[in-house]
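Most newcomers find our protein records easier to grasp once they have seen one. A record pairs a protein's sequence with a compact description of its fold. An example says more than a description, so a record of this kind follows:
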Amino acid sequence: MNAPTLLADRYELVRQLGRGGMAQVHLAHDRRLGRTVAVKTLLSDHAQDTVFQQRFQREAQAVASLNHPAIAAVYDTGEGEINGVVVPYIVMEYVEGATLADLLERGPMMPEEALRICAGVLRALAYSHEHGIVHRDIKPANVMLTTEGQVKVMDFGIARAMGAGGMTMTATATVIGTAHYLSPEQARGEKVDARSDLYSSGCLLYELLTGRPPFDGESAVAVAYQHVTAEPDLPSSRAHGIASGIDDVVMVSLAKGREERYQTADEMRLDIEAVLGYAPVPGTATQRVTAVGHPVAPPTQGGGGGRAEQRAARSAGGDRRKRGLLVAAGVALVVVCIVAFSSLFGGGDEETFALRDYSGSSISEAAEAVRQDGLTPKTGTARSCGKPEKVVCATDPEVGSQVTEGSTVTLFPSDGTGEIEGAVEVPDVTGEQEDAAMAALREAGLEPVRETRESSEAAAGTVLAQSPEGGEEAEAGSEVTVTVATAPQSGGGGGEQSQDTGSSAAETVSVPDLNGRSVADARQELANRGLAVAEVNSEDGAPPGVVIGQEPAPGAAVAPGSPVTITVSTGPAQVTATPVPDVAGSRSMEATGALMEAGFMPELDHSCMRPRSRASYSNPAGGAPAEAGSTVTVFCESSHHGGPGGHGGDDEDEDD
């Protein structure tokens, strides 16, 4: 057994808790103080990259200055050696619990619980904003709920001090990973402030209530574009039991303009706490509740005075927010009227049924099961869930959700990472006699399934093959298919195979798992089993000539000679260059909108932050070919860069 990694002669790394695009987090033991901690280390790939080092150091400095019960504490920072590479590290408070991303895999939360959690996040943000720190990456994966139910905000990896020059959101991996929670100003590449965190908190609350973020799309750019241009559906239109007052809070927090949103975290939290008094009691989810008439005003900075006096003192700014609440209430009323109208005139007679659990099946098996249930399967992004690769982790909608025939069900496969709960190592029983092989598998906590194949080369009763193979990990209690040799039958076709069921069922052949194998191997395996082969080509990230799908699914029992369709990768799709729109002369907001609509991620130079600024040129330049989704930086006429094609000033234009 390998000795545990010791960092800085003090922190014993026990096991990996998680991994992101920049760093990984380990459960660790502090030998000096005898306590359990979490240690975040920069990935070795980035250890020599000054940009990543600076960002990592910025996180340590940002969080070390914050001391709040709802923010994961930092104990120590430094550099240490891991596998011969010197990497920076941050030692943090170990929080025992689950992230909201983990909890959301079970489905949406009860409104009261969602509001309580969001209020905890807002307390942490109020404290960090008071100390001049904007988080900029509020999302379910960065918020934990401890085993005692306490909220902990984590990962200030892209946090920056308010007022820092040119604090814009660039098209880094951070943006791509958090597009669902970007504020409109982040999506446009504009300066970020505390109200950007409040928009992201609104997105978080929306997902806690409904089980999905307010906007979704095929790409990060498509999602970011919706944050800038589209209005979200009311949460109550996506989930039952959400009071109109909750709709109001969410819609105000998701206002496109910063001035129309809550101005402080305390203001949003106080409105949430006020609405909690009107939230529906479990069991009365169909009841609607009167909306809160006015948002609760935040405490004044100077202290003194009651809440009513504070509201009066800022009534001018509050008028805009009241209009937002009235609009949200009006939209809710329209939705209720439409639902009532469609119910009266035959719009609600479509039969629904509960979505069953497809997790644990391979992606191809689950897709077939979805189709058999009258639904449309779609494959989502692979995720780490502690299951074997290409085994389904979760679905959208969640298990138990009411769906109608033809609805789309997104299947999220495992990427093969994460710890398998109760995992055991599969014994290698190939070449063993049947009785000994079956006993070894049962002793390992696995369930053997016997198949037979005629063989003139191996003695009858010898194990010819097994799946999974020896040495692989499998869940305790899972099945291991064992193929046992039988003596050739006169006139029988070699290679035919059947699975013993204890009855005199007609002879069948078990379809092998061909995913990940070469075309040649797949053809040979199918020929050995007496099955026909059909091929379909598809673009994929896998190397050319590798099987990426099959029909029927692995393990299916079919008649000898049946065709098996294999989907073969032709390699990654060829990237098609798209001409960059010419944004010269456009106002900054128009330029970012044009670039996003064309499929690019815009980034504004600091010269575009001045009033009345207009785009002067971009990099890449207008008309130049560039890869869709890539970054296009816009420079404005006031820029000191003096780039090509500069336009004359238009000071007479109105402000952006």
Notes: The chain has a mean pLDDT of 75. The chain has five domains: 5-93, 98-344, 357-413, 427-569, 577-636. The first helix runs from residue 50 to 64.
